[in-house]
Amino acid sequence: MKTRTVSVSALLFLSALYAPLAAAQANPWTKTQLAPTIYSAGTDNSNFFSPSGMLNSNTVNGVSWNIGLYSNGAASQDIKLCYKPPVGAEICLDNIARPTGNTTSFNGLGVKGTFRITYRLTGGNYPVTPTFSNTLTVGWQ
Asked: Is residue 31's pLDDT more than 60?
């Protein structure tokens, strides 16, 4: 009888211990970070986002972003969202220069890859330090 009591107590203890970990794996995954400083025109400058807290078997189920634009007088700001899955080639969406947007283009791919938001500016004054942050949200299942 003592063995059952200890086993049940141990099970309750472990459940209480791991419950916060399960809750920490919220869906969707979101991260906000300061945009990159850009030192010269015509170069790629990226923020990298690597979702964490998921299983290797979890897949992407929608991606959304909230980005800013530089105010250095650039004639153009080409912005792309790329994803390098754990296995396979990188996939990029060109010209996402809307402040907010979303896509299903990465759906079904393994979520444990790396996303990046990349800016390439033409013209303007450099270096330009960002006054904004970029946010990426990844839904997963």
From this structure: yes
73 φ/ψ sector (left φ>0, alpha ψ -120 to 50, else beta): left
- What 3 state SS string does the chain have? CHHHHHHHHHHHHHHHHHHHHHHHCCCCEEEEEECCCECCCCCCEEEEECCCCCCCCCEEEEEEEECCCCCCCCCEEEEEEEEECCCCCCEEECCCCCCEEEECCCCCCECCCEEEEEEEEECCCCCECCCCEEEEEEEEC
Q: Which domains does the chain have, with CATH numbers?
A: 27-140 (2.60.120.260)
pLDDT tens profile 76-91: 999 999 999 888 899 9
Please provide the size of the chain in residues.
141
